[in-house]
């Protein structure tokens, strides 16, 4: 991103070539994009700015950092951030590696071609199958009377609940989130693997590279940026997700989006301004993640063009 | 290569199992309502429930309005940027990515505080206003997908030549967008529309916080109170998502192949 603006500045400093857009036609130039910008301003940018400003105000409208400080000092809030970050981080990492393995298997593994189209179709569906229905599916599978739970108990005599399994633990939620994280990874990373040119493999082979060297010195460096970028997208994806977790435990589960949900519904923290601060914290975390995402993506596009 | 193929099969089969076991188990569970035999009782109860019908209808209507709003906002902007204002492209792309950065719950929280009944623009003061705000919120959620779909569609046609040809024949801007550009990108718009539909139909956070009688809050309510019906609803929701995605795939076969891509 920084590169882009710099190069634009050098271009901008040059005298502009004469073009058809003369000064008196300028207003009509904007008509086509006006609805878009008005919409984005009113319903995306201003509401967000409103929350960010609110995060730095007390109830009388004076500037304060108390709300932000309370995010850290209030153990119930800081722990909810910590749990959310842990779930999002691990579901992103595991989902990314599992998705990458599946993508490599179907693109490069020499499997029959139906596996590729079947996997891609299914991934498109599953990456959009989140929220409440996903939670219902897992409850029917691994809930206390779920099919797999009872099968394991009756046939193999394994009681997973006695072994400490629970959807409401960090690892339980990670396992559920993987159901949409892995397919999302597959959908995004398959084009990147397709972008590996055949000539690179041939060139490496001509130069005497082994298969391992080809992977280490060509494939991984090329895929790396889009892989990292996608990990970050998966992170943000899990961080804002609320419905699946809400279906398991209602407002009881201590993750940030559910905390904010309860705060909006009923001011459970007894400080309206604190809601703004929680929202601000979420924007900061997903925003930082996405800055990295954009940075990695522009780097990877340079290679895959 | 032999061992590579072996591991590829292992990965594929393990992956397939991870995804198919929960789905199979959910189907099985949803058929278990009557003790001892498989039956479609859970589906019958769900589909016959008046609240299922009303909330589902509500969400379908909301999705349709969302798609219309999205098209009205995105198509002129994407077209105009290709034609006249390419320098705005990075800004517009950045804005369309924002809904992926700002979680839905934060966006709707901003709406509740900014457009409450005491505000200058009291969307939440009336029922219709709140419905409108829900559609607007959904349109923001769909913005990244809608914009990308339309922009991809525009890339495959020669916007400038089509526009000039239409202008030479005396067409105004409304005619150009409505009768020349839109039909040419219709397939792209439709795939954006089906994706929007899949996202919107079961959406929970916004509908619940704006207190709308939509399908998402209904799902939540059933999930909290019933045993077998949620499994049936999960299968129905999966079928809807699958339907939307297959329609997108079928449509993409009819999409015009790229005409002016550099390679």
The CATH architecture of the largest domain in chain A would be Orthogonal Bundle
> How much helix, percentage-wise, in residues of chain A?
over 70%
Given as residue ranges, the uncertain stretches of chain B (5+ residues, pLDDT < 50) are: 259-263
CATH level-four homologous superfamily name of chain B: MetI-like
Q: Tell me, what's the shape of chain B?
A: globular
What is the number of domains of chain A? 2
Category by helix and strand content of chain B: mainly alpha
- The separation of the N and C termini of chain A measures 18 Å
Strand segment count of chain A: 0
State the CATH superfamily name of the largest domain in chain A. Answer: MetI-like
Number of domain units of chain B: 1
What is the fold-level CATH name, i.e. the topology of the largest domain in chain A?
A: MetI-like fold
Short summary:
The complex is a heterodimer of chains A (305) and B (263). Chain A has 305 residues and is an all-alpha fold.
Features:
heterodimer; A: 305 residues; mainly alpha; MetI-like fold; 14 helices; globular; B: MetI-like fold; 12 helices; membrane (chain A); transmembrane helix (chain A); transport (chain A); transmembrane (chain A); ABC transporter permease subunit (chain A)
Characterization of the model:
- The complex is a heterodimer of chains A (305) and B (263).
- Chain A is mainly α.
- Chain A has two domains: 30-64, no CATH class; 76-304, MetI-like (MetI-like fold).
- Chain A has 14 helices and no strands.
- Chain A is globular.
- In chain A, 41% of the residues are buried.
- With 263 residues, chain B is mainly α.
- In chain B, 78% of the residues lie in helices and 0% in strands.
- Chain B has helices at 2-30, 41-48, 50-83, 89-101, 104-114, 127-155, 159-168, 173-184, 186-201, 205-209, 215-225, 229-254.
- In chain B, α7 packs across α8 (173-184).
- The longest helix of chain B is centred in the N-terminal third of the chain and has 34 residues, at 50-83.
- Chain B is globular, with a radius of gyration of 22 Å.
- The chains are: A mainly alpha (305), B mainly alpha (263).
């Amino acid at each position: 991103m920084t590169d882009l603006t710099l190069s634009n500045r050098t271009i901008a400093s040059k005298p502009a070539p004469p073009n058809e857009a003369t000064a008196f036609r300028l207003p009509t130039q904007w008509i086509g994009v006006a609805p878009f910008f008005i919409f984005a301003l009113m319903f995306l940018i201003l509401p967000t700015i409103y929350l960010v400003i609110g995060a730095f105000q007390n109830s009388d409208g004076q500037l304060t950092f108390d709300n932000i400080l309370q995010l850290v000092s209030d153990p119930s809030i800081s722990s909810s951030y910590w749990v959310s970050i842990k779930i999002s981080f691990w579901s992103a990492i595991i989902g990314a590696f599992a998705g990458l393995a599946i993508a490599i298997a179907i693109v490069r593994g020499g499997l029959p071609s139906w596996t590729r189209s079947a996997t891609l179709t299914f991934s498109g569906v599953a990456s959009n199958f989140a929220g409440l229905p996903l939670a219902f599916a897992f409850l029917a599978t691994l809930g206390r009377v779920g099919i797999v739970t009872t099968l394991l108990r009756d046939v193999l005599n394994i009681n997973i609940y006695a072994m400490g399994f629970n959807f409401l633990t960090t690892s339980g939620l990670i396992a559920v989130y993987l159901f949409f994280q892995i397919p999302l990874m597959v959908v995004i990373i398959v084009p990147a693997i397709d972008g590996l040119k055949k000539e690179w493999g041939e060139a490496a082979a001509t130069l005497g590279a082994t298969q391992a060297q080809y992977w280490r010195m060509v494939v991984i460096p090329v895929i790396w940026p889009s892989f990292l970028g996608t990990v970050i997208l998966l992170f943000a994806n899990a961080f804002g997700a609320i419905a699946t977790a809400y279906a398991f435990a209602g407002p009881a589960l201590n993750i940030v989006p559910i905390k904010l949900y309860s705060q909006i519904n009923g001011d459970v923290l007894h400080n309206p301004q604190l809601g703004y601060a929680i929202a601000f914290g979420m924007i900061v975390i997903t925003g930082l993640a996405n800055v990295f995402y954009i940075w990695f993506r522009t780097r990877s596009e340079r290679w895959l063009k | 290569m032999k061992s590579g193929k072996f591991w590829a099969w292992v990965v594929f089969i393990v992956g397939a199992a991870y995804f198919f076991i929960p789905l199979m188990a959910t189907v099985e569970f949803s058929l278990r309502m009557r003790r001892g035999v498989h039956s479609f009782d859970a589906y019958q109860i769900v589909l016959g429930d008046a609240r299922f019908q009303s909330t589902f209808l509500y969400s379908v209507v909301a999705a349709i309005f969302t798609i219309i709003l999205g098209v009205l906002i995105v198509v002129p902007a994407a077209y105009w940027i290709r034609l006249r204002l390419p320098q705005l492209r990075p800004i517009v792309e950045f804005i369309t990515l924002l809904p992926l950065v700002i979680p839905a719950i934060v966006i709707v929280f901003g709406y509740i505080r900014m457009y409450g009944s005491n505000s200058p623009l009291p969307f939440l003061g009336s029922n219709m206003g709140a419905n409108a705000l829900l559609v607007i919120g959904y349109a923001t959620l769909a913005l990244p997908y809608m914009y990308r779909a339309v922009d991809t569609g525009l890339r495959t046609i020669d916007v400038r030549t089509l526009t000039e040809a239409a202008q030479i024949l005396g067409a105004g801007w409304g005619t150009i967008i409505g009768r020349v550009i839109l039909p040419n990108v219709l397939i792209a718009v439709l795939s954006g529309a089906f994706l929007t539909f899949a996202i919107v139909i079961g959406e929970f956070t916004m509908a619940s916080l704006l207190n709308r009688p939509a399908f998402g809050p209904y799902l939540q309510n059933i999930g909290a109170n019933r045993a077998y019906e949620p499994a049936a609803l999960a299968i129905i929701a999966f079928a809807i998502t699958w339907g939307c995605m297959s329609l997108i795939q079928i449509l993409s076969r009819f999409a015009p192949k790229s005409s002016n891509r550099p390679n």
